[in-house]
Design goal:
- It is a single chain.
- By secondary structure, the chain is mainly alpha-helical.
- Helix content is about 65%, strand content about 0%.
- This is DUF5658 domain-containing protein.
């Protein structure tokens, strides 16, 4: 009988493969939309860390920021125990879907899907 290494203890993949694929799909759509935000004059990125990295490194900074965000999600999902890991990744997929949809609609129609309500 072999002892599991410290890295194997509590480090499992969060959720089914389809949920992980959904995360990477909406993450990629959001990444592409965010890159386009820096190339069109009528849209802008709100995340200050992404803007900072864009100012520092250009488009590579935007990709780096997206990779860091995905790394945090994956890392947290691996550390959480079931069923919390599945719930966490599912929540992130729903939020990314909402944000990516808003970004795509903004890029296509020049109007955000989720406009702030200001009285």
């Amino acid at each position: 009988m072999t002892e599991p290494s410290p890295l194997e203890i509590g480090f499992d993949r969060p959720g089914p493969a389809s949920l992980r694929a959904a995360f990477f799909t909406v993450w990629f759509v959001d990444l592409v939309a965010t890159i386009l935000f820096f190339t069109v004059p009528y849209a802008y990125e709100l995340n200050p860390m992404t803007v900072f990295l864009y100012d520092l490194l250009g488009i590579v900074g935007v990709v780096f920021a997206a990779l860091v965000y995905a790394g945090f999600v994956i890392g947290i999902g691996h550390v959480l125990s079931r069923p919390f890991d599945v719930g966490f990744v599912l929540t992130v997929v729903v939020l990314y879907t909402l944000f990516a949809s808003n970004n795509v609609v903004l890029l296509i129609s020049r109007e955000p899907l989720l406009a702030p309500i200001v009285p």
